[in-house]
Specification:
metal-binding, globular, alpha+beta, methylmalonyl-CoA epimerase activity, 2,3-Dihydroxybiphenyl 1,2-Dioxygenase, domain 1, MMCE/EMCE_epimerase, 4 strands, 4-stranded mixed β-sheet, 67 residues, VOC domain-containing protein, single chain
């Protein structure tokens, strides 16, 4: 399984669907971490179950690289 994060899950879904990529649900659901998620159809991702997740701003602040 692969998890990808995005700032705008709805825009990402629209972009992927415009390219022929299917999702396993029509709209995002609340994932295990409490953020919107959607899974891509494995047949459209080289057999890999791929999750798109949109974390909130606090997650981004707490997990951003500090240089």
């Amino acid at each position: 399984m692969l998890r990808l994060q995005t700032d705008n899950i709805n825009a990402a879904i629209s972009d992927l669907k415009s390219k022929g990529v299917r999702t396993l649900a029509d709209k995002p659901a609340t994932g295990a971490h409490g953020y919107p998620v959607v899974f891509l159809h494995p047949k459209d991702a080289n057999g890999v179950l791929t999750e798109l997740e949109q974390p909130d701003e606090s997650w981004k602040r707490n997990h951003s690289k500090k240089t």
